[in-house]
Task: structure prediction
Amino acid sequence: MNEIVPFMTEIAPFTGYVYPNETIVPWGVLIVIYPYLTGLVAGAFTVSSFYHVFGMQQFKPVARFALLTSLSVMIFVPTPLLLHLGHPERAMNSMITPHLTSAFAMFGYFAAFYTVLLLLECWFVFRADNVVRANNSTGLARTFYRTVTLWSDDISPRARAIDSKWLLTLAIVGIPSAHGLHGYIGFVYGSLKARQWWESDLMPVIFLFSAIVSGVALLMVLYVLASKLRRVPIDHACLKGLTFALWGFLMFTVILEGLEFTNLVYKGKEGIDVIMEYVQGPLFFRYFILQFGFGALLPIAIMGLMIARNVRGKAFVIGAMVSALLVLMNVLLMRWNVVIGGQEISKTGKGLLTYPLPVWGRESLMSAAVLVMAPFALLWVLTRLFPPWTDPPGNT
Amino acid sequence: MKYDKKKAGRRNFLCSTGKALAGLGVIAGGGNLLGQGEAEENMKDSAGKGANSFPTPDYDWTKHRWAYGIDATRCIGCLRCVEACKAENDVIGDAHHFRTWVERYVYLEGDEKVHVDSHADPQNIAASGSEAEYRFDNRYKDAKVSKAFFMPKMCNHCEHPACVQVCPVGATFKTEDGVVLVDRDYCIGCRYCLQACPYGARYFNEELNVADKCTWCYHRITKGLQPACVEVCPTHARIFGDLNDSSSPVSEFIRNNPVQVLKPESGNAPMCFYVGIDKDVS
Result:
């Protein structure tokens, strides 16, 4: 008989009967982080599009910042996947030889396309600023900004008009791309028939809408924080616009999630007994109390009250911040409850597992925390290099 | 012979036999842009011509259609099959990695609920004294058992395997003779296939960082031998053979018995045919 080989994998405790191979949970915390980050990308892009495509003026203060946020997060989207892969050095196999029947085969292409699109959009949005900065600086800074503009230094009104046309086109292509990318992630789970908890036609739609709410909530938090750090007044119209958007999209998302769960229970297919045992037991607190109660219903109530009573000033900022932070928790929990939840229900339909979250290691609490924080470190650097707060030169 | 990852790799197969063909750069239609589909096509061609075929020279995979039969009524739960499989295929020697395993179903008098356990069960691990040994403990010694049976499980080598469908790189593939294999040299270790298999038949091989599963001992059956689990089964509960041969044990087993498959509703069309499945077996 072979020797037991020690390896860094935790065995999941279980109740009832689970297949022996199920006792090592295949997708850990990094696969929770991955759709979370992707959702933030799509949501932040949506906020940017409110102004850049739909021309909603109240979102102007955050439009360029939202674009930088989307780019910062997008750059880190592949990292949880790469860390998760058994052979990250073979990751490009999926792009060199995509197996087209796989729901996941197109991810590399979609992600690469969207990253290029974001980079292009950022280039156009910040080109005029960078030209001016290059002209006003010397030495290394001048070289840097000139390189970033790709030596395209014409900022005449005619050139700016061409920039604007390109920007609109890119944003129009970007909206379906951003949302397509995230709906697609939902499809990766929703199409997996082996797990009843995932197999749902509503899954892509739920992922998409929760992505939008997470992005809007993130922008609210970042905008308020940035304003405080910059010691500038918060634009009430902008924050109110974001709050309205969050409130509306959140209600829609919660209804979709509720419908999905009702469908699962009402259909009551084989295996529902163990699902109900799971929902009423280990999942109850983090699903009904935290995700639905504190993460969705409470912010809906807070924002609804603020809108109904026309709350302004500091109280509005605090209410909006609390709501946004709760929604960010909600979406993270939603990802957790889908990804980990699906794997905690055994395919036997006779048992439940408990995912053991390692604190240290390649796929651990710490690596996930670092990956969630890393985009914001990059965002801090990018906002220093390309301040998104002022109008581009030549704009009114 | 052990399942040799070097020989199993389609990349290496390409190198050894199909360099010229690969050099043509024919982009295979369907599944892949290049590479994988191309490799499979080359394998089909050269196998038919008796070239240096994978994994056994002169084996023609177009001439066989393998299938597996399990007569659960014959299984005595001795677990020789599990041990033989682990040894033959270098399966990680603990209670959480199995290419084949055996489940014990027990119904107690006055209790409608079925009690199921297998090798990951802490009581069974304690009874065998080691995670590398496999025993069913004696927990029902004093209980009034109304019905009990053993249920051998393994990869079903499905006709429409969900694991093959979801593999993003085509590292998991179905051979012409009906066996689902993993190319260890090409697998990226994403574990999507582990999620897609409704039978829990796949595990992640932490030694090689790739998905792993039963191969029906492909290195043996292509030499005319039986899979290790079939070879050692003392009660002939496990039957293996070629569906293209109407007198093969598995053809006769399917013809002479009312056979069933596991989770037919999954649409995977398993190629492991069972006799003696009870309503609670999933």
Observations:
- The CA atoms of residues 45 and 169 of chain A lie 14 Å apart.
